[in-house]
């Protein structure tokens, strides 16, 4: 799948503005929704399993640019996996979330990475590996080193967070923004001809009632 | 067995979309009481219904497995013409009182049971509340587990546990094995087990290949009603997976552990079971509307109608479990069961409160083979107003999301938001508004519109178990009225704690609860007055002019 330019700029503004699609992926109950909720609302509550996926937007006014995040928080349940590709298609960044107190979720995050590697070229998407629930350090099953090592070999951003105690949640998203903007600068010499390019979800939309994919 | 589920009922058209069958029209003309012919009763839509036409409870329950456990209404046409005029009722009452000794005893028993605290509040609230899958299961060897009033189990035909309402499925695998053995044993003889009645328990089996659903209940519900609830559970599972996928899985691998796919959704099923014990919508097979001035509702409906998109099939606005407005694509009808499943989905997950949800969902009564995509969001943070936009196109998130924005904009422009806020402040009306002193509560269902109305449950039904007892009484009246071998049109019962009346006609169903001090004559007068009141208020209590895009 050919990925478009990572963003669009609005030439009128004094600062460029970008829109990025960010998707949260990972097993059930690793805290994907909680991370999104913490980041968007700066709050924490016990959430019920996500049904399908939830969509949030967040606008960041940075010194160098205005960034609008479109955050797709997916359900970790297996039954939704057949539709998950819908949610991460055309994503600019992905958070692969696992629970540091559950080794299995770490393996699952690795599988997610394989899935993404099949669909994206490395420079098409920024991937962050996120070990969530540092508040459960006593029950830790995945060491920080393990996560770090894996992220390093695969060239991913890495961070351990706690949505519950608000540990490094903002930092993860900031790290992603920085990386996205850095990549933006790399290709900056080539100005975007179309102005703002939005993700066109209807591009391949055959009108069908069912998904027999 | 697979073919069973496939089998369409007579009123389902083959293309999967559902339109009212022809039977509806014959019924209208045949109706013996012109004044209350179907379609003219209070609450009947003026321009047709928005739901699939369910003539009666039997339409919802009649097993698709083809067995003639429930005779179709047509078969009963031969019986004496309906007597539903008010004069006839009083005559019927005297006849009924002699016929109904069995029922009276049953009711007495029910009430005694209530006194003895048999109807304890459901104690499962603690379970599965620890959200992130760390569900605290009950110990199935404990007495407390045995004391639950209604157990529900779902298993695969290989005998593998799929769902248990209480306790972990693993711990119950041997119990489920026994259940499957029972089913298979009778099946070997080309027979089917429907229920076992013993020791105050009813064990009800519903087989929907590749699943078997079993309830073990000591409620007063009839076998038919329990089976009806099990069917809801079956449809609930279909709504997550589709019938096609479910069958495909088990064709591939007979001993597949379906819990893998249903993980994270147990709560939706739990919630459905709890809801069925509290909300008469399921019993009535109908939908309740939020009381709202007709002008406001019309403004909301037109706003919804205008915020359309090509892929949209249904736009539904709801508050709690009450319908505010429903706009549908022309010629596409929603089935009340599908709407109930949507209500349940929304009330069982708090995750819709934040952001916008986009989820695949199957509406099994509409089309059990495919997914719709539903956009679900609350209009405002602290307001209980949820918008559901059902689309056929899974790629259409942004288009549909824009429909929501346009809807909200139009609402604002029409300036009905304030009125809507006001209406939400009193989502239920008081029975006192009717102005009948002895009247405590009632449920009135218009059959042609598939809508019902009912006031708030007030004193003396304050405590949870009292409310459940009242619903239990309605369930009992309902099951008597819809008994497959001897349906009753009118029931009047004088009890120690309340008097009850049921009146079922071609056009409507009415269940009334009076203070025990009233008389039969008074009750009949009250019914008259009540019907007039409902007629007067119908444009507030019902959706009379359903809209299409």
The residue ranges of chain A in which pLDDT falls below 50 over 5 or more consecutive positions are 1-10, 191-213
What's the N-to-C terminus distance of chain B? 39 Å
Distance between the termini of chain A: 17 Å
Most extensive chain-chain interface? A-B, 40 and 48 residues
Assembly form of the protein: heterodimer
Largest sheet, strands/sense/barrel of chain A: 6 strands, mixed
> What is the strand tally of chain A?
6
Roughly how many Å is the radius of gyration of chain B?
23 Å
The biggest sheet of chain B amounts to: 6 strands, mixed
Rg of chain A, Cα atoms, Å: 17 Å
Coarse morphology of chain B: globular
Number of strands of chain B: 17
Walkthrough of the structure:
In chain A, 30% of the residues lie in helices and 22% in strands. With 213 residues, chain A is an alpha/beta fold. Chain A is globular. With 549 residues, chain B is an alpha+beta fold. In chain B, a hairpin with a 4-residue loop joins β12 and β13 (451-453). Chains A and B meet through α1 and β2 of A and α10, β9, β10 and α15 of B.
SSE arrangement:
The complex is a heterodimer of chains A (213) and B (549).
Chain A: E1 17-26, H1 32-41, E2 53-61, E3 66-74, H2 81-88, E4 93-99, H3 103-119, E5 126-132, H4 144-154, E6 157-160, H5 169-186
Parallel strand pairs in A: 1-3, 1-4, 4-5, 5-6
Antiparallel strand pairs in A: 2-3
Chain B: H1 2-6, H2 23-30, H3 57-61, H4 86-99, H5 101-115, H6 143-146, E1 150-156, E2 161-164, H7 173-188, E3 195-198, E4 201-208, E5 211-217, H8 223-241, H9 243-252, H10 259-262, H11 266-278, H12 280-284, E6 287-288, H13 294-306, E7 312-319, E8 322-328, H14 336-348, E9 356-361, E10 372-378, E11 386-391, H15 397-414, H16 417-425, E12 439-446, E13 451-453, H17 464-481, E14 490-494, E15 499-504, E16 508-514, H18 520-541, E17 547-548
Parallel strand pairs in B: 6-13, 8-17
Antiparallel strand pairs in B: 1-2, 1-5, 3-4, 4-5, 7-8, 7-11, 9-10, 10-11, 12-13, 12-16, 14-15, 15-16
Helix pairs in contact in B: 5-17, 8-11, 11-14, 13-15
């Amino acid at each position: 799948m050919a990925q478009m330019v990572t963003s669009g700029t609005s030439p009128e503004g004094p600062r460029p503005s970008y829109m990025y699609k960010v998707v949260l992926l990972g097993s059930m109950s690793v805290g994907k929704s909680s991370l999104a909720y913490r980041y968007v609302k700066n709050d924490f509550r016990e959430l019920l399993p996500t049904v399908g996926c939830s969509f949030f937007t967040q606008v960041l006014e940075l010194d160098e640019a205005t960034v609008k995040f479109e955050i797709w928080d997916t359900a970790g349940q297996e039954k939704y996996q057949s539709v998950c590709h819908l949610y991460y298609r055309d994503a600019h960044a992905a958070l692969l979330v696992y629970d540091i107190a559950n080794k299995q979720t770490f393996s699952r995050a690795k599988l997610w990475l394989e899935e993404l590697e099949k669909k994206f070229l490395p420079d098409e998407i920024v991937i962050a590996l996120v070990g969530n629930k540092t508040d459960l350090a006593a029950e830790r099953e995945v060491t920080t080193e393990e996560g770090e090592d894996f992220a390093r070999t695969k060239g991913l951003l890495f961070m351990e967070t706690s949505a519950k105690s608000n540990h490094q949640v903002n930092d993860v998203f900031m790290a992603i923004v920085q990386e996205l903007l850095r990549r933006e600068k790399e290709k900056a010499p080539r100005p975007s001809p179309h102005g703002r390019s939005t993700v066109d979800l209807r591009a391949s939309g055959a009108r069908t009632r069912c998904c027999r994919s | 067995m697979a073919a069973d589920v496939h089998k369409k009922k007579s009123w389902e058209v083959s293309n999967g979309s559902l339109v009212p069958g022809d039977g509806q029209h014959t019924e209208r003309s045949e109706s013996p009481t012109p004044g209350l012919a179907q379609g003219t009763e209070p609450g009947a839509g003026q321009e047709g219904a928005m739901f699939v036409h369910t003539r009666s409870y039997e339409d919802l329950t009649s097993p698709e497995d083809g067995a003639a456990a429930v005779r179709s209404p047509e078969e009963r046409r031969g019986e004496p013409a309906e007597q539903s005029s008010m004069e006839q009722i009083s005559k019927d009452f005297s006849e009924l009182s002699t016929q109904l000794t069995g029922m009276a005893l049953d009711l007495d028993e029910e009430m005694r049971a209530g006194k003895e605290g048999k109807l304890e509040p459901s104690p499962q609230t603690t379970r599965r509340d620890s959200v992130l899958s760390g569900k605290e299961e009950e110990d199935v060897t404990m007495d407390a587990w045995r004391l639950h009033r209604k157990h529900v189990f779902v298993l695969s035909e290989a005998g593998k546990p799929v769902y248990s309402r209480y306790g972990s499925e693993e711990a119950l695998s041997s119990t489920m094995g026994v259940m499957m053995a029972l089913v298979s044993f009778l099946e070997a003889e080309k027979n089917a087990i429907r229920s076992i009645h013993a020791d105050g328990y009813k064990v009800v089996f519903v087989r929907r290949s590749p699943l078997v659903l079993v309830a073990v209940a000591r409620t007063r519900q009839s076998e038919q009603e329990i089976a009806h609830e099990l069917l809801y559970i079956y449809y609930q599972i279909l709504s997550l997976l589709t019938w096609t996928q479910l069958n495909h899985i088990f064709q591939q691998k007979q001993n597949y552990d379906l819990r893998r796919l249903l993980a994270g959704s147990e709560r939706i099923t739990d919630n459905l079971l709890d809801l069925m014990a509290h909300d008469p919508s399921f019993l009535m097979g109908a939908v309740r509307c939020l009381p709202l001035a007709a002008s406001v509702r019309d403004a909301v409906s037109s706003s919804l109608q205008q915020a359309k998109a090509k892929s949209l099939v249904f736009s539904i606005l709801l508050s709690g479990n009450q319908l505010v407005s429903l706009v549908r694509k022309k010629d596409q009808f929603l089935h009340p069961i599908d709407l109930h499943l949507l209500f349940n989905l929304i009330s069982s997950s708090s995750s819709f409160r934040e952001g916008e949800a986009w989820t695949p969902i199957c509406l099994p009564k509409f089309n059990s083979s495919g997914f719709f995509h539903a956009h679900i969001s609350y209009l405002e943070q602290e307001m209980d107003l949820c918008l559901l936009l059902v689309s056929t196109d899974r790629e259409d998130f942004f288009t549909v999301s824009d429909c929501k924005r346009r809807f909200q904009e139009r609402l604002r422009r029409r300036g009905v938001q304030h009125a809507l806020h006001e209406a939400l402040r009193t989502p239920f009306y008081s029975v006192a508004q009717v102005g009948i002193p002895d009247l405590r509560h009632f449920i009135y269902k218009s059959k042609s519109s598939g809508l019902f109305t009912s006031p708030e449950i007030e004193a003396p039904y304050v405590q949870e178990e009292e409310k459940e007892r009242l619903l239990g009484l309605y369930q009992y009246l309902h099951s008597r009225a819809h008994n497959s071998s001897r349906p009753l049109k009118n029931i009047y019962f004088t009890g120690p704690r309340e008097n009850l009346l049921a009146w079922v006609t071609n056009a409507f169903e009415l269940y009334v609860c009076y203070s025990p001090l009233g008389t039969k004559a008074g009750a009949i007068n009250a019914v008259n007055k009540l019907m007039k009141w409902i007629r007067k208020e119908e444009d507030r209590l019902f959706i009379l002019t359903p809209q299409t895009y």
